[in-house]
Amino acid sequence: MYPSLEEAKELAKRYNRIPLYRELNLAGLTMPSLLKALCAKKDVLFLESAREDRAWSRFSFLGINPRRVVSFSRAGLVENGPDGPVKVRADFFDYLEDETGRFCSPTFEEYGSFNGGLVGFFSYELVNHCGILRGPVPEDPGTPLAMLAQIEDFIVYDNVLDRYSVSTPLYADGPGSIDDRYDDAAAYLEKLEANILYLVDSASMPYLPARPDEVRLAHRCGREEYMAMVEEAKEQIAAGEIIQAVVSARSDIVDPVDPFRFYLKLRSLNPSPYMFFLKFNDLHVVGSSPEIHVKVEGRRAVLRPIAGTSPKGTTPGENESLKAALLADPKERAEHLMLVDLARNDLGRVAAPGTVKVESFMLPEDYSHVIHLVSVVTAELSPEKSRVDVLKESFPAGTVTGAPKVRAIEIISGLEPHPRGIYAGAVGYLGYNGVMDTCIAIRTAVFNGRERYLQAGAGIVYDSVPEKEFEETRNKLRALSLSLGYAAIKEEAPCF
Is the pTM of this model over 0.85? Predict the structure, then answer.
């Protein structure tokens, strides 16, 4: 077990929560197989990543046995724990500050950056509680504004060493001696390992059909309707109300789909920096997002705006030509520059003076079905600001709203026929070690009982061509749409 008792005693002088790790004997098991085995549990939260070269990043994390699940909605803030639901009277962001500030935990590089914390999603309409709007935008009554699981027990997979470990925390303060608490934690990890091995042995292995079945999509906004929204947005731009708006359209998944098999195919078709499978009972949020919402590590905050899109070429030569054309396109460059400026402004509200920097600017990057223009903006946090402040000040991301942000949000609310819900919000975690890592909830499918949908948008500027913007939304959904056919189930039934 790592760290040893003596090492834990030393760490307890500086930290009040120490993650303990026990190696699991799961030789030859793939991470999807383990995820499939553990999906029998009520709540499972899986986070993994792939680099742009499609190689898997080093660590994958699978949160199990949440101590409690926190939901925030019109009904207020509710904690669901072992004793049932308890209503909490607190501002949501103050609650996040208090909960993540209760513990101070070390990071062990050999086990990755996540070692316990709050994991889940923030819906787009959480902006109503960020203090920037003149009036609230309509909310989706069937979707929480946020849902977060308190993860203490989790499995980490090291893709380089092909090593699985299970973790639980040791608290520096508590009843009895630290020696006894360490022994109790060791016994708990041994029991947890036995339970995991039992589930793995009894589970069927994941599979995908050789050929996809047809899965019907019902587009709430067809070509003509979307193009009309684009024209309305352009009128607002011409009137000087905004300089850009990101207009999106939702597609309902008509036929029943297995969320796990959908994820299994999506991760192979569209490997991305942020991939996630969140299962909160019968609510599944499944995605493969290319874009950071915001990341904070130590006192350094990072935004990575993505704006400017082209279909990928079929040959390397064609791909390079498309990249050159994308970089030369005045409309795409203008859109990207606006959103880089918006990212600088968002970080400027929480940054120490003079620390906001554009680390890289407008570089073309390849994804599975599209090319994007990408920049990186960083800042050092002001001493009086926290990562929760960064989340609140930057939410929602400018790349899914437009600019100026507040007016763009108001106009989008009037254009789009329904609230966005989880789409264009954020997915990720706030760890007890001070790390916050979140992505924008795009390239994401939501399965909420019988409600199942995809959604995508395009950035509209003065010289946008409506037909082209409509095609961009379809291109962004291509990997998700293709994955659905491999996840079709023949009759409506619970996924797990």
Answer: yes
Based on the residue annotation, tell me whether 443 is a catalytic residue of this protein. yes
Catalytic-role residue among 250, 372, 420, 452 = 372
Whose CA is closest to 150, among 100, 187, 198, 111?
Answer: 100
Q: What pLDDT tens digit does each residue of the chain (496 aa) get?
A: 999 999 999 999 999 999 999 999 887 788 888 999 898 778 999 999 986 555 568 899 999 999 999 999 988 999 999 999 999 999 999 999 999 999 999 999 999 999 999 999 999 999 999 999 999 999 999 999 999 999 999 999 998 898 999 999 999 988 889 999 999 999 999 999 999 998 888 777 777 888 889 899 999 989 999 999 999 999 999 999 999 999 999 999 999 999 999 999 999 888 888 999 999 999 999 999 989 999 999 999 999 988 888 888 889 999 999 999 999 998 889 889 988 998 999 999 999 999 999 999 999 988 777 888 999 999 999 999 999 999 999 999 999 999 999 999 999 999 999 999 999 999 999 999 999 999 999 999 999 988 999 999 999 999 999 999 999 999 889 889 999 999 998 654 444 4
Q: Report d(CA 77, CA 283) in Å as an integer.
A: 18
* Domain 5-207+215-484 bears CATH identifier 3.40.1550.20: no
- Annotation marks residue 399 as catalytic: yes
Would you call 438 a catalytic residue per the annotation? no
The residue from 261, 284, 344, 443 that is catalytic is: 443
Catalytic residue at 372? yes
Q: Which residue of the set 399, 401, 444, 473 is catalytic?
A: 399
Q: Which two structure tokens, joined as six digits, stand for 377?
A: 């903006």
Which listed residue (21, 423, 429, 453) is catalytic? 423
Annotated active-site residue in 459, 473, 485, 486 = 459
For 288, 311, 320, 422, 480, the CA distances from 314, given in Å and listed in that order, are 22, 10, 10, 33, 19
Alpha helices by DSSP H, listed for 374-446, are: 387-394, 405-415
Say whether 284 is catalytic.
Answer: no
How many C-beta atoms lie closer than 10 Å to residue 154's C-beta?
24
